[in-house]
Amino acid sequence: MDIKNFIKVTLLIERKYPVKIRKAEPFEILIHGIMSTRTKDTTTFPAQKRLLSIADTPKGISELPLKKIESLIYPVGFYKTKAKLLKKACNFLIDNFDSKVPSDKSELMKIPGVGPKVASLVLEWGFNLPFIAVDTHVNRIVQRLGFVSIGTKPDKTEKILEHALKDNIKIKVNSSFIYFGRAICKPISPLCSECPVYNYCEFKLKSKYYKLGKREI
Ligand code: SF4
């Protein structure tokens, strides 16, 4: 799929799933991002709320006993590792950024537990900047549409999108694609017959995958 069609498709998806900016304080988004890996939002959001209701600053979290953080964020996936990362990230913010979350991607990625996706999430949701956090939904859809090759890693997809798209399109991708991915372009058995961008999608042509019921992306 070329860039012209990708923009057209993005606008069609956004028409059906309008952008919902989940704006919040950058620190809150950072905490969310560190906890969210391999965990559903329905688990991450309540866990984040429990933690932030007890301590909502880097100093507050850094002073909590590790066991307390673990119990607050459980049952987030890998909660023991993530509890350690949260503490390390808070200490790093205190030591290096005067307890403030930076608004620069390379600075953000120095924080323990923060990779390109979490950094983009903080910039997009926390600072309202035109970045694209490529999660599993976004990466799957962009591959199925044929804008990047099958098997492209999220970090690479993110670079390609950020290079190719203008800011006004970038802000539509993450939110609209996530809702579209949950409702229509699901990981298994996508609802292609209900898809608003069916005519543009390259993946739907490979119907053998659906017949075999495989999950190849
Ligand atoms: S046609 Fe199917 S695979 Fe393609 S974007 Fe739509 S739901 Fe996803």
Features:
217 residues; mainly alpha; Endonuclease Iii, domain 2; Endonuclease III, domain 1; 2 domains; 12 helices; 60% helix; elongated; binds iron/sulfur cluster; metal ion binding; EC 3.2.2.29; Endonuclease3_FeS-loop_motif; HhH_base_excis_C
SSE layout and pairing:
Blueprint: H1 3-16, H2 26-36, H3 41-54, H4 58-63, H5 66-73, H6 79-97, H7 105-108, H8 116-126, H9 136-145, H10 154-164, H11 167-183, H12 208-212
Helix pairs in contact: 1-11, 2-3, 2-8, 5-6, 9-11
Bound molecules: iron/sulfur cluster.
Residues 144-145, 184-185, 190-192, 195, 197-198, 201, 203-204 line the site of iron/sulfur cluster (SF4).
Pfam families: EndIII_4Fe-2S, HHH, HhH-GPD
Organism: Candidatus Parvarchaeum acidophilus ARMAN-5
Protein name: thymine-DNA glycosylase
